[in-house]
C-alpha cells in the first residue's frame, strides 16, 4: 500500500485518489520526570508509517499529521499537559471524516496512541450507524501486541512512563529520555483512572512502575511486536470493511 502524506501537494491527489486515510492521535501530557510531554505523539509519528508499510493491499492511504493533543484529563495537574474534552475529540474525528469524505476519501482509520481517548469507540459506532456506511475504523496498536512480547519486562504491561514506554523511547528518541528514572511501585490499575487522576494514583510522580529497568533493546523488540501485530490487525479490519461496506 502506497502511503501519501500532507508533505505532498494537493495536486498529487490525482486519480486514482486514495480511498483511505489514517489519523494517528497522540497527546501532550505529563510522562513523569524522565519522558517528554510529547511522548505519545513522538511514538505515533515514528510507528504509524511502519505499520502502514507492512499492510499489503493495492492503492494508497493518506497518512494524516498526528493529532498532537487529545483527551488527557486523567493527567491533569502537571505543568505542560494540554487536554481536550471528549466531546472536542468527538467533533474533531467527525469533522475530519466529513472533510475527507467530501474530497473522495471514504474511509478513515482512527489510530490512538494515548489510552485516555475513551470517546473514540462510541464515535466510530455513532458515525457508522448514522451514515449506514463503514466510514470510520478503530485501531489501537497496543491492543494487538502479543502477550509474549511483555515477557521480557519484569512487571508485565507497564505502559504510562513505566518500563515499556521508557524502553520504547530509548529505542526511538534516546535524547528525550531524562536521567531521573525513579521507580514508583505503587498499586495501579488502568481502570482506576476513570475515577482518579494519575497525579492522585501515583502519589504525584506521574507514573506507576519501573522505568529504571528500561533498555533500548527491550524497546526495539516490543516495537517490532507492536508493529507486526497492528499491521496484521489493520489488514484484517480493511478486508472486513471491504466485504461489509454498510454498517
What would you note in describing this structure?
Strands 1-3-2-4-5 form a five-stranded parallel β-sheet, with helices on both faces. It is α/β, with parallel strands linked by helices and 247 residues long. It has a single domain (2-243), classed as Creatininase (Rossmann fold, 3-Layer(aba) Sandwich). Helix 1 crosses helix 6 (216-243) and helix 4 packs across helix 6 (216-243). The two termini are 25 Å apart. It has helices at 39-53, 86-102, 120-131, 163-172, 198-201, 216-243; strands at 2-5, 20-25, 60-63, 107-112, 136-138.
In terms of DSSP E residues, the strand content is 5-15%
Straight-line N-to-C gap:
25 Å
The CATH class turns out to be Alpha Beta
Instruction: Give the overall shape.
Output: globular
* Fourth CATH level, the homologous superfamily: Creatininase
Number of strands: 5
Q: Residue share in helices?
A: 25-40%
Query: If strands are numbered along the chain, what order do they take across the biggest sheet?
Result: 1-3-2-4-5
**Regions with little confidence, pLDDT below 50 for 5+ residues:** none
Shape-level CATH architecture = 3-Layer(aba) Sandwich
Query: Roughly how many Å is the radius of gyration?
Result: 18 Å
Q: The CATH topology is what?
A: Rossmann fold
Structural class, please? alpha/beta
Overall number of domains: 1
Main beta sheet, described?
5 strands, parallel
H/E series: EEHEHEHEHHH
Number of distinct helices: 6
Amino acid at each position: 500500500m502506497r502511503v501519501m502524506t500532507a508533505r505532498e501537494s494537493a495536486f498529487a491527489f490525482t486519480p486514482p485518489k486514495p480511498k483511505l486515510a489514517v489519523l494517528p492521535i497522540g497527546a501532550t501530557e505529563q510522562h513523569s520526570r524522565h519522558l517528554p510531554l510529547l511522548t505519545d505523539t513522538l511514538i505515533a509519528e515514528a510507528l504509524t508509517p511502519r505499520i502502514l508499510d507492512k499492510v499489503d493491499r493495492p492503492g494508497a492511504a493518506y497518512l494524516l499529521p498526528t493529532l498532537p493533543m487529545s483527551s488527557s484529563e486523567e493527567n491533569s495537574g502537571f505543568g505542560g499537559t494540554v487536554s481536550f474534552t471528549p466531546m472536542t475529540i468527538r467533533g474533531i474525528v467527525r469533522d475530519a471524516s466529513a472533510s475527507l469524505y467530501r474530497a473522495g476519501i471514504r474511509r478513515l482509520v482512527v489510530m490512538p496512541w494515548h489510552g485516555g481517548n475513551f470517546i473514540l469507540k462510541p464515535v466510530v459506532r455513532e458515525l457508522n450507524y448514522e451514515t449506514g456506511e463503514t466510514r470510520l475504523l478503530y485501531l489501537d496498536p497496543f491492543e494487538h501486541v502479543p502477550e509474549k512480547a511483555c515477557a521480557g519486562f519484569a512487571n508485565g504491561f507497564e505502559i504510562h512512563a513505566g518500563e515499556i514506554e521508557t524502553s520504547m523511547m530509548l529505542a526511538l528518541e534516546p535524547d528525550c529520555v531524562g536521567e531521573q528514572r525513579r521507580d514508583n511501585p505503587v498499586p495501579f490499575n488502568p481502570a482506576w483512572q476513570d475515577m482518579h487522576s494519575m497525579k492522585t494514583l501515583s502519589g504525584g510522580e506521574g507514573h506507576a512502575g519501573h522505568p529504571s529497568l528500561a533498555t533500548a533493546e527491550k524497546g526495539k523488540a516490543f516495537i517490532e511486536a507492536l508493529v507486526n501485530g497492528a499491521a496484521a490487525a489493520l489488514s484484517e479490519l480493511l478486508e472486513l470493511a471491504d466485504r461489509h461496506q454498510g454498517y
